[in-house]
Specification:
With 111 residues, the chain is mainly α. It is built from 3 helices and 3 strands; from the N terminus they run E-E-H-E-H-H. The longest helix is centred in the C-terminal third of the chain and has 25 residues, at 86-110. The protein starts with a strand and ends with a helix.
C-alpha cells in the first residue's frame, strides 16, 4: 500500500499520511487555500513515504529498495500500522543479500 505526505516548508507543517494520490492533491490544495490564499509556497513537497515516515526521494537507492521490500512484507500482515515488523526488515535484508550473492556467483562463474 502506497503512503503519501504533503510538506509545506514555509509553515513547517507536514500532512498526515494518505493512501491515494487524489487525497494527497486535496490535502495540498486545502492547505494552500486555508493558509496561503491559494498561492503555492516555495519549496513545498509532496511524495511517497515509507512505513517509518521517511521520504523515498531522500533515501539512497539501496536503503530505498530495502524500505520498499520491508514495506511490502509488512503490508502482508497489516496495512494500517506504521513501522516495519522485525521479520519484514530481516526478510528484506535476506532477499537483498541473497540477490547480491546470486549475481556475484553468476558473474564469477561466467569469468
Amino acid at each position: 500500500m502506497r503512503r503519501y505526505r504533503y510538506r509545506c516548508t514555509v509553515c513547517r507543517t507536514t500532512s498526515p499520511v494518505v493512501h491515494q494520490l487524489d487525497d494527497l492533491a486535496a490535502e495540498g490544495e486545502a492547505h494552500r487555500l486555508a493558509l496561503h490564499g491559494g498561492h503555492i509556497p516555495d519549496d513545498e513537497a509532496a511524495g511517497q513515504v515509507d512505513r517509518l515516515g521517511r521520504w523515498y526521494a531522500a533515501l539512497s537507492p539501496l536503503v530505498a529498495l530495502h524500505a520498499r521490500i520491508a514495506d511490502g512484507l509488512s503490508d502482508l500482515r497489516d496495512t494500517k500500522t506504521v513501522g516495519h515488523y522485525w521479520w519484514a526488515s530481516a526478510g528484506a535484508t535476506l532477499i537483498l543479500g541473497g540477490s547480491a550473492a546470486l549475481v556475484l556467483g553468476v558473474i564469477s562463474a561466467a569469468l
